[in-house]
């Protein structure tokens, strides 16, 4: 699996830096070019972090080998791009960011080991990293014990609110509720068939979806099924779907299983462009479509906070810089964009705090806003998640989504939703 | 082999050197962080010692030792999780007082088979008894039917795959892919700070020696002789009137118990348990520790586990994008060039230069080239 995708060399062209740098500096609320001498090291770093007069060290902790490498590579690229752009603008409090990258190797104990190494040995000021919930759960005690600070990019199941983590992806309700409302309102959907891969995120998400469908929308759930990760035989569930004739298939299938699932749906004669049933997913980003094939998923709807096709200036510059750095054939999915926010949010929080100390950065974080985010304006909630919009995209044959709906306002993050437990 | 003392002098010297390294050299030379890592590596050495008995001495190649490692780890993790899941600590849940992952999976009461794990004594007993029992069932089913060699290896591998799928599938009871996480205290003693990890390191080191003594005693006994005979000519042993299957079942159970002790210590050292350590890949890695150390040498197994894991950490820190290739090359090189691992290297090149009393009699007679 590790070799499925070539890892591009993480160098970033000058043009990308300039393009990104100009875009960011134009929109960031802090003045460009804070000077390091205005912030003496002994004042901005009182806890012995790896901060010198001209540099600050930040960790990147993702799987770049093993089964998760294919998913996490985009996040690594986005984080490195953001850091390069920040450095091109003069760094954080006048200090250049140096990255220390570690490989979690798709293995949760390894994640814990490397997190300890970054915090205890390298004394990094913050860490951008983790992707699966399992890896986050593995490193969480390490971050809490050593008072580290983690920026976690993936949309996830919620039910967590650590003082040592900023969650830059959506928690479950942010991704689910607006999409279900939309499909009920616009498409008149009444009956839903829920299915997903068998682990905590799809199960928790479907639990929330079922409550919302039954209690708020007055609809019905006609089936709910789970399959092991890596499962590739979906014929039986496809037959059941044809029998039950739901209005909506609500799919939270992850990883390699997606390829089999969508191909088999198509082979079984379920043409998603006809929308009977309509397919709504929260687990397929542009990255996954590369594996599935655009023609196999054309017509499906996805509910995310970010699509590569979002039309705004921030995003156009971000997409251009990303392609410039890593190649024209790159696609950018929801998590990649969320990963890109991590370094920028950290920079903003550090500069608001005037300090690299984790306690001060944590204190300064709630309320930090980013007007320059590719997804548009975001803000950190006091529960350490982001206020973000929810969007619905319509999959096209070329592997991109067309945005057909976005919420008017930012959706409040609610990791412990009352009434949905 | 008529010597009456427990250890030959070269064995005693080997043990003394290992003790020196584990109890003096490492604690003095390594900082807390690195020492903790070696504590983790040591937990794998338990599995490797068990494998030397099963594979090196008995010729039983198990590619499913991760299952036993996992059983021990999960038993310990269940106890620690229950201790961490007090009603006060879990007040935010729908059902306070049960482990958090159960609450996420809409389970509203602690399953009955979790209840005994409130008791530490029971947990310790389970860490030894559960894998032994499981190994007995597997061994009974296989060895009584004279399933051996490659077929046995394949079946143990299948068991490792089944165990992973089972754990992931039953996430309400096992924590699923995430595993059992956020373990805090052992009988009120916080296992998370560095000082606790250092203490655990020494517990590990002591337990390693206990296991080494047990394993050496087994090898030295008449039982050990029969084991080697069985490995090299099973039919002859059977025709001589020995019950081959019982011998195999016994040694397989011992190997499983040692793996399980390692698993329990792993949970304490790392602070969580997850199905990634139970599956096929880690099980094969465990065999590699044993192969690198030398499958006929108990001490070699300990060095093999330490060396391979140390190399894994070091390579991956220095070359995050290439380390797997480096490690793969190391394994190939070891197997091609030194089929008897580090211990073989030592026997062939170092030992002849040292004036061991009684040299020459030992290894050749003890460990003729196995025939599997």
TrEMBL record, chain A:
Question: Pfam families attached here?
Answer: Peripla_BP_5
Q: Which domain of life is it from?
A: Bacteria
InterPro entries with a match to the protein in the record: ABC_urea-bd_UrtA, Leu_Ile_Val-bd, Peripla_BP_I
Kindly list the biological process annotations in GO that this record carries: amino acid transport
Under PANTHER family, the record lists: ALIPHATIC AMIDASE EXPRESSION-REGULATING PROTEIN, PTHR47628
User: Know the name of this protein?
Assistant: Urea ABC transporter substrate-binding protein
Organism of derivation: Mesobaculum littorinae
UniProtKB/TrEMBL annotation, chain B:
Bilayer-spanning residue ranges: 12-30, 42-64, 120-143, 150-169, 198-218, 239-266, 322-346
Membrane-protein topology: Multi-pass membrane protein
Provide a GO CC annotation, any one: plasma membrane
State where the protein is found. Cell membrane
Which superkingdom heads the taxonomic lineage of this protein's source? Bacteria
Q: What is its main location?
A: membrane
* Example GO molecular function: branched-chain amino acid transmembrane transporter activity
Key words, A-Z: Cell membrane, Membrane, Transmembrane, Transmembrane helix
PANTHER family, alphabetized: HIGH-AFFINITY BRANCHED-CHAIN AMINO ACID TRANSPORT SYSTEM PERMEASE (PTHR30482), SLR1201 PROTEIN (PTHR30482:SF4)
Q: What is this protein called?
A: Urea ABC transporter permease subunit UrtC
Organism of this sequence: Mesobaculum littorinae
**Which gene does this sequence derive from?**
urtC
